[in-house]
Amino acid sequence: MSKIATLEIGGKKYELPVITGTENEVAIDIAALRGATNGVITIDPGFKNTGSCESAITFLDGEEGILRYRGYAIEDLAEKASFLEVAYLLIFGELPTKEQLEKFHTDIKIESQVDEDIKKILDGFPKSAHPMGVLSSLTSALVAFNPSSVNVESPEDMYKAIVKILGKFPVLTAWAYRKRAGLPLDYGDDSLTYVENFLQMMFKKPNGSYKVNPVVADALDKLLILHADHEQNCSTSTVRMVGSSHVGLFASLSAGISALWGPLHGGANQAVIEMLEAIREDGGDTHRYMAKAKDKDDPFRLMGFGHRVYKNFDPRAKIIKKSADQVLEALGIQDEVLDIAKGLEKEALEDSYFVDRKLYPNVDFYSGIIYRALGIPEEMFTAMFALGRLPGWIAQWREMRLRKEPIGRPRQVYVGETHRPFVNIEKR
Ligand code: SDX
After folding, report:
1. Among 115, 294, 304, 371, which one is most buried in terms of CB atoms within 10 A?
2. For residue 83, what are the CA distances in angstroms to 78, 213, 251?
């Protein structure tokens, strides 16, 4: 592959450098384009063809359905690693030794207290508040209680901010659930694993003990690993963009939580279950919903289907689909919504509209079925996605800061009114 791209504009030729990544992805570096061409820029709504950065964290190949974190296949990590191991890998670049992992978990546990005054902010929300709005607010509020988390010029300060949010975010997530359920806000038990502790914080009843079901803990650990990072998706790009102004980690994460909330992104897992339940209420008539999904005049989309990058099966969806069967069987749960999902998937994969557009089930299509089997309510599904994505957001934010990336500030092509004289109100 040539190291130079030649662009011809207005009869003049310009040479632009070409870079090639370690997985042989090729990009034209246009950093000098505007200066060399006296103002010409590129435009690419949704950035479907535009890279925002070089990154060493996650590689995915949408055509082959490959996903790797720091070079390790998602299939291996989901099968053999714990969520905290994967968090360490994503953030620091290597799988931890036993000692490193123990110290990481200890440092996180030390920081897992949340200032009691945060409860006053939570009290101000109505029970009906969506957990993603609560989490975005409380994550931003954490800055006020942890001012040192903003200026992270030193590696020590950055590490401290990282273990603080990894310790406090599961507490805030559990509290967001317990607020809606009318339960007292609970802390977990430091003797438990990261995921077991979260489950206890979520489900321990005030008048009883909570025994972690290993099937539930293992399934949740795997789900969190599968959601942990996904290169420059909408919410991660938001975290990097907001972080590029040096506002600090917690405020950047708060912005990422808001971006993930959208139904086209992380909010899809809740929308999938709502769609499947609507189909069930409708007598299981998947054909009607397939027709709606294909009707250009109907805004309905088959939620959990399609992906900006994967034009093949989302490898995470494959693992989650298999895990859904295993979890429901292990817990002795019959969920007819799973059968509807499988029927819908089969129908879509045989339908030319979906096949021609390479629309396959994505990570959100089956995840809600497992969350539901684990006793997690629908309005918490996207919050679970955020809990899983937290280490990825942190890793990407840390990489952006360590690489000293410039503040993000895209250009535009102006298509509005050209200069015109002001008209006094009497004459309008
Ligand atoms: C996530 O980016 C990531 O990595 C995200 C994520 C992560 O881990 O961070 O993987 C998590 O967000 C997964 C996606 C969850 N969202 C959904 O399941 C919502 C439903 N999916 C769609 O809205 C859509 O597929 C997107 C948003 C996911 C991708 O949209 P694109 O890449 O912008 O594609 P597009 O809208 O240009 O669609 C191309 C064509 C269009 O039809 P034509 O105009 O060519 O005729 O495919 C159609 C679309 O109408 N299409 C769908 C569809 N998805 C795309 N038609 C029906 N149902 C769908 N789900």
Report:
1. 304
2. 8, 17, 23
Closest C-alpha residue for ligand 1 atom 51: 306
> What is the position in ligand 1's atom list of the atom closest to the CA of 233?
2
With 0-12 / 13-18 / 19 or more C-beta atoms within 10 angstroms meaning exposed / middle / buried, residue 288 is exposed
Pocket of ligand 1 (CB under 6 A): 46, 230, 233, 264-266, 268, 293, 301-309, 357, 359, 362-364
Query: Which amino acid is located at 403 in the chain?
Result: R
Residue whose Cα lies nearest atom 4 of ligand 1: it is: 233
- The atom number, within ligand 1, closest to the CA of 365 reads 18
User: Which among 253, 233, 296, 258 has a CA at the least distance from the CA of 398?
Assistant: 253
Stretches in the chain below the pLDDT threshold 50:
none
> What are phi and psi for residue 237, nearest 5 degrees?
-60, -35
**Which residue puts its alpha carbon closest to atom 31 of ligand 1?**
308
Residue type, position 204, single letter:
K
Token pair for 416: 């509005």
Annotated active-site residue in 157, 307, 351, 419? 307
pLDDT tens digits for range 46-55: 999 999 999 9
Known active-site residue 307: yes
Closest CA to 89 of 363, 392, 387, 385: 392
pTM: 0.95
Instruction: Calculate how far, in angstroms, residue 281's C-alpha sits from the geometric centre of ligand 1.
Output: 25
Cα of 293 vs centre of ligand 1, distance in Å, is 12
Q: What is the pLDDT of residue 188?
A: 85
pLDDT at res. 148 = 85
Q: Which of 387, 389, 394 is nearest to 163 (CA)?
A: 394
Long-range contacts of 188-197 (CB under 8 A, 24+ apart): 188/112, 190/109, 190/112, 193/82, 193/84, 193/217, 193/221, 194/82, 194/83, 194/84, 194/105, 194/108, 194/170, 195/82, 195/83, 195/220, 195/221, 195/224, 197/170
Tokens of 332: 């002795």
Ligand 1 geometric centre to CA of 266 (Å): 12
Nearest alpha carbon, ligand 1 atom 37: 308
CA separation for the pair 334, 338 (Å, rounded): 9
What pLDDT is recorded for position 136? 98
